[in-house]
Amino acid sequence: MHLLSSRQVIDRLVGDAGLGAHDLVLDLGAGPGTITASLAHTGARVLAVERDARYVAALRRRFAGHDRVRVVHDDLRRVRLPRRDFAVVASIPFATSTVLLRRLLTPVPARLARAELVVEWGLARRLTAARPRDLEQAWWAARFELRLARRIPARCFRPAPAVDAAHLKVHRRREVDARTAAVLWPLLTEAYRRPDEPARHVLGDLVAHRLGRRLLHEAGADPAGPTRSVHIGQWSRVAGALAGDRALRPPPLPKSLRS
After folding, report:
1. Bind-site residues
2. Per-residue pLDDT of the chain (259 residues; tens, 9 = 90+)
3. Residue partners of 108: CB distance under 8 A and separation at least 6
4. CATH of the domain at 8
5. Is residue 83 part of a domain?
6. Ribosomal RNA adenine methylase transferase N-terminal domain spans which residues (predicted)?
């Protein structure tokens, strides 16, 4: 386990989260509580999730006098996530990053409001690429703003990992509500299934071709260009416009996407 030990990095993570007394924040993979301790000073309600029994015992002793800090002995891959809006500030174990991001970023409706995460550098670069490499990452990028804030050198951990890490900022896009998401999913599915076909064909199963061309044009995309040339923000704008038409009945989301 590589523990984040840089006080400067921790202070930036917690400071950037902008937490207050009305917030609920999770430290997933809390370890000895280095990040948890800083979160406790924000006034927010803190859930420190840790699976190692030795760390859990130490955390409970350390925060016994903090009535707004609760230590949860569980695995971050399985722990029940809150049913209300919450934030996450955590240094995620590299080996579980994808599993955890899937839990946080995939479900509809989304309960994660924002996150300040430490992840492996290469993963952060892939998640913030201009064109997501697959449908899953496109789904995440369409519903959350993912931004690489800064590089975190390996020397900031004890023991140092073989690669550098990154500070990844995550903010939910409030304009992508449940209805917009229901329209967006089939658009992205077809876009990634048929990347070389004209973009207007992706809309063919939902709306008339003339309307599809107009919506793509209004979103700043070329209706005749290949689907792969339409970026995520443009698909989101098209989905938002379609969601405003109450006569449209989008197909139900797959069960795997529903929380």
Report:
1. 2, 4, 29, 50, 75, 91
2. 899 999 999 999 999 999 999 999 999 999 999 999 999 999 999 999 999 999 999 999 999 999 999 999 999 999 999 999 999 999 999 999 999 999 999 999 999 999 999 999 999 999 999 999 999 999 999 999 999 999 999 999 999 999 999 999 999 999 999 999 999 999 999 999 999 999 998 887 778 888 999 999 999 999 999 999 999 999 999 999 999 998 888 889 999 998 8
3. 178, 181, 182, 253, 257, 258, 259
4. 3.40.50.150
5. yes
6. 9-174
Feature table: binding site for S-adenosyl-L-methionine: 2, 4, 29, 50, 75, 91
Which one-letter DSSP state was computed for residue 255?
A: G
On whether both 46 and 61 belong to a single domain, the answer is yes
| Boundary residue ending a domain (150, 172, 194) | 172
Among residues 122, 145, 172, which one ends one of the domains?
Answer: 172
Q: How many domains does the chain have?
A: 2
pTM listed for this prediction: 0.95
